[in-house]
Amino acid sequence: MALALQAAAAAPLVLRQRDGRRPRLLLAEDCDPVRIVTAAMLKGMGCDVDAVVHGEEAVRSACAQSFDVIVLDIEMPIMDGITAARSIRNLGGAVSATPIMALSAFLADAMQQASWSDTFDIALPKPANRNELHTAVQAALDWRPRQAADGEAPLINPQQMSDLSAGLSAGVFRELLNMACRDIEVCANQLTHLQKSAIRGADHVYVQKLMALGQSF
Question: Exposed site from 24, 58, 71, 100, fewest CB < 10 Å?
Answer without folding.
Answer: 24
